[in-house]
Each structure stands twice: as structure tokens, then as C-alpha cells.
Amino acid sequence: MIFMEGNCKGAIFRGNIEYVTKKFGKLGLEKLMVDMKEKRHRLDLNHIIDGNWYPMATRMQFLKSTVELFDLDEAQILELGKSGFKQSAIIQIYLKVAGSPKKICKFGPKVWSHNYDTGRLETEYGGSEGTYFRIYDFKGDPLLCTYLMGFYTAAYENVGARDVMVDEPKCPHKGDEFHEFRIRWTP
Predict the structure, then answer these.
(1) Residue-averaged pLDDT of the chain
(2) If 126 and its partner were Cys, which of 49, 63, 130, 182 is the partner (CB 3.0–4.6 Å)?
(3) DSSP H or E segment with residue 131
(4) How confident is the model at residue 44 (pLDDT cuts 50, 70, 90)?
């Protein structure tokens, strides 16, 4: 059983559920729920409520079970991260307010705290050559790092950035004190 402190909003699951259903059908989604139940994480993926809080341990099990059951490679995990961005109504509203890479950076910490009650996001806007998102007090699993790289890629693509590249030069899983995602793009 996975343990991770904190909670996330149900909206975080929305796009991933759609991704699984589109790629692997409703039977794939049922298979995922059975696997999670066997691993002591009961979650009815057909009845997620966007504004409700769900344990981060359940979130991590959802991601791990999805990757293991459907044998996802790194590129597919990035796509899973992109799907999480595309289906969140809150994130889409945020995009309309933000509308630019600089504003994504500005509003990012507020969006983080709306969706997670653990960890803290700080941002540093450096333009297309290197904008940084740093997440403190949020360990998780290396799988979540790859997922977030896909999520941030989709965010910047959705405001017109091209050739978006996201990497993680610093990570608690490599011995660093925090996650640091560097985002670069073509304006």
C-alpha cells in the first residue's frame, strides 16, 4: 500500500480517467478500479467529485496502477500528464485568466494550493529561456515527476508556446530538497 501525505481535489483525476477510457475502454477503467481495490485504495472512478478532497496515497496508487496495468512508457506517462491538464475545468478557467506563459507563472502557486493541500509551489519567470516551478515539501514518487512534466508542457502549449521542453534538474528522489521543473519554449 502506498503512503503519501496530503490530499488532492477530484478534478486532478478527471482527464486521467478520460485518458484511460479513451485508450483502454470502459473495461480498462473497470480493471483499474479492481486493481486499486485489491491494493486497498477504493475509488469509484465513475463518481469522482471535482471539488472533493481525495488522499494523495490514492492518487499515487491510481497513477501506479495505470502505468503497471497498461504498461505505459515514459512518453505515455507524459501524455497522461497532458490529459490531466486538458480536462480540469478549474485549470481551463485559470488559463483564460492567465492567457500567457508569464501569467501561468504568476497564478501557478494559487492553482497548486487550490488542488493540493500538501506541498508548496513557487515560480520564477525567466521567459522562454528558462522559467522555473519549484515544489517544496512534496515527495511523492518519481512517476509523479514525469506526470507533472507532461502537465506543465500542456499548460504552456495551451497559451501558444511552441516546442515546449520541460525537465527536472532538481528532485528529492535525486537527493535535492525540492522539485525544480525548468520550462523552455519557442515564443
Answers:
(1) 90
(2) 130
(3) strand 131-136
(4) confident
